[in-house]
Amino acid sequence: MKILALILALTFLPAAKSVYDFKLKTIDGEAFSLAKYKGKKVLVVNTASKCGFTPQYKELQKLADQYKDKLVVVGFPANNFGQQEPGANTEIKSFCEKNYGVTFPLSEKVSVKGDDIDPLFKYLTEAPNPDFTGEIKWNFEKFLIDENGKLIHRFRSATTPLSADITKYL
């Protein structure tokens, strides 16, 4: 009977209305919510330290610095593609700071696809937007969130952070 009640409760949970509805953890293990960035755009990026796109960390930091009054970049390390993020959170944080001067927020390592997909990424890959939906194909895909927590654009890995494709929305 308890299992049936749990299934019913989970079935009728309200659907997330924005990215602000998700509970997250920083790379240091502290609870945080993207709601703290209400009023700014947020660029959510699934990252990895041993990927051909890893040098994008440098541009992500430049983007975060250049548009700090209206944009927050948040990196989400993930090991879903080619085992390119094998390290623990402390190793990832150290790598990003030492090699790319990263000061923008990083979450704890998450899964961005598959059976263990983080709920935020399940939401982002299914949320309507003018670009495309569906599974993340590789590291460094980017999701641009508006000032109210809604997904407004999505970009594949090859779109560089400082490209006009992204900056025209800032």
List how many beta strands DSSP finds. Answer: 6
Report mean pLDDT, rounded to a whole number: 93
Classified in CATH, the superfamily is: Glutaredoxin
How is the quaternary structure best described? Answer: single chain
**Cα-atom Rg, whole angstroms?**
16 Å
Structural class estimated from helices and strands = alpha+beta
Domain count: the total is 1
Order of helices and strands: HEEEHEHHEEH
Query: Per the principal axes of the C-alpha atoms, what is the gross shape?
Result: globular
Stretches where pLDDT is under 50 for at least 5 consecutive residues are 4-13
InterPro entries: Glutathione_peroxidase, GPX_AS, Thioredoxin-like_sf, Thioredoxin_domain
Signal peptide: 1-17
GO molecular function, one term: peroxidase activity
Keywords: Oxidoreductase, Peroxidase, Signal
Helix-strand layout with pairing:
Blueprint: H1 2-11, E1 24-25, E2 31-32, E3 41-47, H2 56-66, E4 71-77, H3 89-100, H4 119-126, E5 142-145, E6 151-155, H5 164-167
Parallel strand pairs: 3-4
Antiparallel strand pairs: 1-2, 3-5, 5-6
Could you please describe the fold and organization of this structure?
The chain has helices spanning 2-11, 56-66, 89-100, 119-126, 164-167; strands spanning 24-25, 31-32, 41-47, 71-77, 142-145, 151-155. By secondary structure, it is an alpha+beta fold. It has a single domain, classed as Glutaredoxin. The chain starts with a helix and ends with a helix. Mean pLDDT is 93; it is low at 4-13.
